[in-house]
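Hi C.,

You asked whether I'd gotten around to modeling the 270-residue construct. I have! Everything is below, sequence then structure, no commentary in between.
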Amino acid sequence: MAGSADLLATWEAGLGAAPAGRALLLHRTARPDLDAAALPRLPVGERESDLFALRRALFGERMQVRLGCTACGEDMEFDLDAGEFAENLAGHGSAAPRRGAGNCATSHDGPAEARRPIAALPAERLVRVSEGGWEVEFRLPGVADLTAAARAADPRGALIARCLVSAEYAGEVRPADALPAPVQHRIAEAVEAADPGADVTLNVACPECGQATRAELDIASYLWTELDAWARDVLLDVHLLATAYGWSEPEILALSPLRRRYYLELCADV
């Protein structure tokens, strides 16, 4: 796991970045084993799982979430388990209600029941679809694919064109723009089934009115907020210890959090 100095460098680099840039910086921290250029091409669900795992490693299992009821405006607070999300983003995340909070269940808008089996190839990150005589092979979209497609006049068509590996009808190779609407719909189902963690949606039952509120859980934004608060606290610790002992920033960051806190307590007692 990244040390304090590396995390501070990530935070500093992200201060002037857009949300997408911050998410990429966090993903680089979560996956130092991969080339940075490959990260935007990973399936979105894989990136979300990586970020949940990073959050778990940095700040623990418990995630505190606050959400306003869309029906009555009641402020709801509840807990989520970051570890469970990291291990299984297919709709089995748990939420433990806090005192005065409503029950919360997590769900991920799953695909309609498949009419034919969907063969997912995790190693190659591909899905294969058979529909109405069509045989299609499709690569799971990454963040870069979604971002580029969103800028196009026809986002769905642009996304299909970027991620289509092969398409055949009656034994003949066909281009992406030849795919009929039912095949495109079937591709969307297949992608959702193969990468369910790409859309993490919370369903929260309001304790006051009983109505359910749905909201997307943006783990990149959540984690960045926590990292920002942590970084500012650490820099304050550095300032206080450097003032008291004359130590350099690297020397202070090399201390364990426990020893750093002990020295701060000693400074307060002086």
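If it helps when you're writing up: The longest strand covers residues 62-68.

Thanks,
B.
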